[in-house]
Design a protein that fits this description.
The chain is mainly α. It has three helices and no strands. Helix 1 packs antiparallel against helix 2 and helix 2 runs antiparallel to helix 3.
Amino acid sequence: MLDYTVMLVAVMLCISLVLNLWRLIIGPHIVDRILALDTMYINSIALILLYGIFNQTPLYFEAALLIAMLGFVSSVAFGKYLLRGDIIE
């Protein structure tokens, strides 16, 4: 039963990733594109975690943690660039 649930959630996350990609391409403002990119990496983290649950391997959880840290740093850098026009002072 858990296998079917994991597959259903994975399909939903893939649909969400496609919709986020559409917002990333079509987004009228740069802020919309940055938020779409931020949401895409969160959805990809969830997809990696689901794959780790499906395979019953803790290795994917560490990879998801690394991607989460990199995504946070990139979101902060994008925000700083939008506010000040410069990342490194």
